[in-house]
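Subject: Protein record for review, amino acid sequence with backbone structure tokens
Concerning: The relation between a protein's sequence and the shape of its backbone.
How to read it: Take the token row as a discrete description of the fold.
Enclosed: The protein record, placed directly beneath this head.
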Amino acid sequence: MESAPEIPGTAPREDPVPDPDPVPVLDLSLDGASLTARLVDIPSVSGDEKPLADAIETALRALPHLRVDRYGNNVVARTALGRAERVVLAGHIDTVPIADNVPSRLEDGVLWGCGTSDMKAGVAVQLRIAATVPEPNRDLTFVFYDNEEVAAHLNGLGHLADDRPDWLAGDFAVLLEPSEGQVEGGCQGTLRVGLRMAGQRAHSARSWKGANAIHAAAPVLARLAAYEPRRPVVDGLEFREGLNAVGITGGVAGNVIPDECTVTVNYRYAPDLTEQEALAHVREVFADCGVARFEVEDSSGPARPGLTHPAAAAFVEAVGGEARPKYGWTDVSRFSALGVPAVNYGPGDPNLAHKRDERVDTDLIGHCEERLRAWLTA
């Protein structure tokens, strides 16, 4: 057979070079459980979310009813239907380090794998709603963000809040964090401080020549042991606080009286307090305990449940069940800081997050998707 004649002015055809890093394909027509499995099988440990962000962006850009924007490895898609309200559905796409639990596996209606519960099942629900509800009764914003499982300054939602706050604008937000298909309102604030006790170094054979900083921590530990945490009711939900030692460091050598000891204390507080009020409370608790230096190591503010907001009330009624408080800190706090009331609602079990045997009930994935769809199409 003769070869086809060359077209003048063109170079001979060459076989294309395969892309060494092709974008993973996400089929949004898959059911929620199958889509979750696909998401799990695209590793996205914090800091390495790009392949999954690429896949999500590509899948969403194929949907004509959405405008899609990207900032780093954060993908935001929005409808523009002129509805009276805008709802934000948000979820992080990163996971903790894989613990020999990828790829995923399905056994008897349970999907196992890193990120199944926290929170790729929730991300799958977001994607399914994005693909199958083109004309919702409220305008929708879908936010997929990176680096939630690591230091707060890396958090993609935080970067969007700082640099693209208009992308997060809305009347109400649902963070699809694992909550076993129950609405969890608001979140606790968290404050971690280091209480440094000072002493004087000496040889342990002549201990009277020094002052033992570890012994000096006794009043701090006694105060913690006797502390009675509050259980305040905020917007109809009872939150349980906690003030606990989570670490202690001190000691120089087996024959030295230590001149320094630090007790690290974590305060988990209810959303009726501000960060400043929480800090003032902790200072007051240890005011007479001989603390030489008080150092704030980490602080993230709480979020009120906001369940009295009409959109929140309608959401709780639509999805059913009884709202409960969120024990722990989540990114609903960032929405609260932007003036957007938010709740946690997702198919995973928070008690299974980050575990080697992390898993999710596939029926619950379908349940959450159906409840959201009903709310957005009623």
